Structure formats: C-alpha cells, structure tokens
Amino acid sequence: xxxxxxxxxxxxxxxxxxxxxxxxxxxxxxxxxxxxxxxxxxxxxxxxxxxxxxxxxxxxxxxxxxxxxxxxxxxxxxxxxxxxxxxxxxxxxxxxxxxxxxxxxxxxxxxxxxxxxxxxxxxxxxxxxxxxxxxxxxxxxxxxxxxxxxxxxxxxxxxxxxxxxxxxxxxxxxxxxxxxxxxxxxxxxxxxxxxxxxxxxxxxxxxxxxxxxxxxxxxxxxxxxxxxxxxxxxxxxxxxxxxxxxxxxxxxxxxxxxxxxxxxxxxxxxxxxxxxxxxxxxxxxxxxxxxxxxxxxxxxxxxxxxxxxxxxxxxxxxxxxxxxxxxxxxxxxxxxxxxxxxxxxxxxxxxxxxxxxxxxxxxxxxxxxxxxxxxxxxxxxxxxxxxxxxxxxxxxxxxxxxxxxxxxxxxxxxxxxxxxxxxxxxxxxxxxxxxxxxxxx
Length: 441
Ligand code: ADP
Description:
Helix content: 40-55%
Radius of gyration: 44 Å
Bound molecules: adenosine-5'-diphosphate
Strand order of the largest sheet: 2-1-5-4-3
Shape: elongated
Number of domains: 4
C-alpha cells in the first residue's frame, strides 16, 4: 500500500511535469519535477528522522504523530508498543505473584549466578542466613567453612546440615540445585524438629534395647547355670525365682510400652465416663495393701466425695503407677496416703508417701521416658522407667496437671489436678444434671 502510494505520487508528478513541458515549457517541467521530488524527499526525511529520534528511547518518549504513509507505519509501531506494554504488565504481575508465593515458602530459596553471587532470595532465606540485597557472594552471608567447601567441590547429591547465622539454635539442611543455564538454586530447609524427633527415636530404641538386654542377660546366665550345674533343689528354686522376676520385668516393660503407645496414639480423649472417686480410690488402696503386705500404713482420705468425668481405665492405670512408686520408694514402716479434695472447683487426686524423696534437680525430668533418679533401686524393685511418662500422658489427655513436690528423706506428693469441667461434688444439683445429660448422649 505504501509502495503503491509512492508510485502513484511519482506517476502523478511525472504526468504533471510532462503536462507542464507540453503546455508551458521544458524549464517549468524541470521545476515541477524538482519541487515534487524535493517535497517527497523532505516528507520522508522528516518522518524518518522523527522515528529515529523516538527509537533511541522508545519507552520514555511519545510516538510522534505522522500522516500519509508514515502515519500508517507509526500506527503499526504504536499498536505493537501498546500490545507489548500490556504483555509486559501481565508478565511482571505474574512474576510478582510468583515472588510473593515463593516468599511464603517455609524453605529458604536463593538464586545464585555462575560466580555464586546472590541474584535473588526469598524471605525465609533472608531470615535464616541474614541475606540482604543482591550481587554479594553467598559465602559473605553463610560463612561456614563446610558450606564453602560444599559449594566449591560441586557434588550436590546430598545436602549439608549446619546452624544458620540468623538462627544459631536451629539446624538447616542446605542443598544446591543446578539449573539448565549457569544459575544455581540454593534451598535451605529447617530440619531442627525432624532432627530432634530422629534423636528421640534413636534414644528410645537404644533405651529399650538396653532395658531388655539387662534382664535377658540375667535370665540367660541363670538358665545356663541351671543346665550345666547339678544344683541342690533349694538353689534351683532360688535361681528360677530370679528368672521369673526378670521375665516379669520384661513383661511389665512391654505392657508399659503398649500403654504408652496407645496413649500417644490419639491426643483427644473420647471416653467420658462418670467415675465415683470414693470406691475407685478405696479399691486401689485395697490392691496396694496386698502389694505392700503390711510393710506400710496405707490410708484413703476423701475430703469431698465427687464424681469425675474421664476414662476409668486410664485414670486407674495412672493412679496405680503413682501408688506402685510410693510403695517401691518408701522404706518399710512408711506411710502412704491416697487423697482426694476439691480446690477452687478443681479435683485433686494426690498420692503422698513418707519415702526417700527426690532431689529438686531431678523433678523437671521425672516424666521423661526411662529417666530414673536411682537406676539400681528402680530395677531392683521392678521399675521400667515409664510409669510417670504414662501418668503424664493420662493427665494431659484429661486436660489435667501433674504436680510433684518432694524433699529428699521426707517423702513425695504426686498430684493430678483435674479441671473444673471434669469434676462435680457428689449429690450437687449441677453434678446430677450434668451426669444425666452425659448419660443421654
Ligand atoms: P520407675 O519405673 O523407675 O519407677 P517412673 O517413671 O515411675 O519409673 O519414675 C521415674 C523415677 O522417679 C523413678 O526411677 C524414681 O527415681 C523417681 N520416683 C518416682 N516416684 C517416686 C517416689 N514416690 N519417691 C521417690 N522417687 C520416685
């Protein structure tokens, strides 16, 4: 179209020049030609010049206005520029959305160039490694020599774990992911919690192996002796009793482990049976008197008869564990009291003994699995080191608190404090209504 227009202009100009030559003179024809071609050249030169000037900074300058053939060219360029601006806005909005999403990732992400300089980092990486700005070398922020070696040697099959400068008490796994071009991604994942869980798992397995190995060694030793030696009946009996005691310890360990596993399995307590505290504690005390066999004075004190809502088997198991400890850690002649009272609407089940007591520094760790103050005494009395862990779990599942007060040589008190919502004084109108409501469910 543009070419056609120019050709028509040239043809018209030649026709005008020929007409002028025919009707006027050859000189006039030459003038017509010169003026026409001059106008054409000026027109093209002006609009080409404007385009050239605009093209030096196309995003900062307005596209000039033109007419004729150049008007069409400018229109096309204008349309292309508008289209490109729309696409650019869309792309940058998409990029912003992507950055915002990557910023929300819990994992740190750093884009490194071929010289391992930071090109971009998300918020998690900035918080973990104190990264700010761009173009600085990554080892400026992660100064750990192990990391510098890791970057240099170039084998990124496995991540490395280190404490980041921005959070020195945490552990972070760092992994470099090479990309198709010269860039590399550095991904940091906080592994503090998974490392802690893994450590707990390892300790747990080591503890169980140790707990089982000790009685097993005793059992194996005695059985060997029984096989090899021709012992008098009395000695045989004593040896077999020891074997029986040790297998009992192993059975108790397995049973406590199963109890713990089932308590840990779900954190919500579904069972909400009304339990009358007085007969429950009296039965437990009667059973304890059989275990104690007259070696201790055992009393039950109920300050206010009450009903509690809970899982009977779990509360029974928790109190039995506390009572069993009281007997095992109270020398003969000592006193054990099983006590229930209401305090500010909360129900307190307390097991008090006049036994050996516990030094203050041990108290915070007593409910840890396998924690013992005196390993020898615990084992000799058939302890598994899991009793108080079970009590703590049962208390937690009942939204109750386990408190321990103890003085070495003076005795200990272990109390389970049940929240107001789980306790009603027996016979109170509220108790009757609440239990009736419960039974309807
Ligand atoms: P264990 O089977 O060893 O008794 P527990 O978890 O029941 O395990 O108790 C942990 C430790 O707490 C015991 O090893 C013992 O040292 C201490 N302990 C628990 N109850 C008493 C108590 N009534 N008097 C003194 N020490 C106690």
